[in-house]
Amino acid sequence: MASVRVTGTARLKKRLEGLPDQIKDSVVEAVKESAEAVRDDVKRNVPVDTRGGDSHHLKDSVDIRFREGGLAADVGWFGPQNSYATYVEFGTRRRPAQPSLYPALERERGRFASRLTEEVRRALR
Question: Among 41, 46, 74, 76, fewest CB within 10 Å belongs to which?
């Protein structure tokens, strides 16, 4: 399994406890939008082997799993049929790394704060 996990949700949940549900919902929406953005970026950039007759491609199986009531999301490949995603992402002794998941996360990292701010502002209107 290859996936990205963002930490710090326990601290976030603690801070959200006293806030109205509208604010909590806006945080969940921002997490959802960011997770979808990472997934879509990976789909666009993950290498696809077009040489063989294999119809299973990583771009078709990158997925999102939400946790903590939507406050956290894991983006990546889950399940044994996608175990080779780790080798593609990090490389092997014989094959160079072709990362797509971590670069997508890094591109989204800077957008998340503004996405979160916009969602909270929208909830407060």
Answer: 74
Q: Residues 65, 38: contact at Cβ < 8 Å?
A: no
**Rounded distance between C-alpha atoms, residue 116 and residue 124, angstroms:** 12
Contact 41, 114 (CB under 8 A): no
* Single-letter residue type at 39: R
Q: In sequence order, which residues have a C-beta less than 8 Å from that of residue 41 and are 6 or more positions away?
A: 100, 103, 104, 107, 108
CB under 8 Å to 29, separation ≥6 — which residues? 119
Does this model's pTM top 0.90? My answer is no
Return the closest-CA partner of residue 111 out of 45, 30, 53: 30
pLDDT digits (tens, 9 = 90+) for 24-33: 888 899 999 9
What distance in Å separates the CA atoms of residue 60 and residue 46, rounded to the nearest whole number? 10
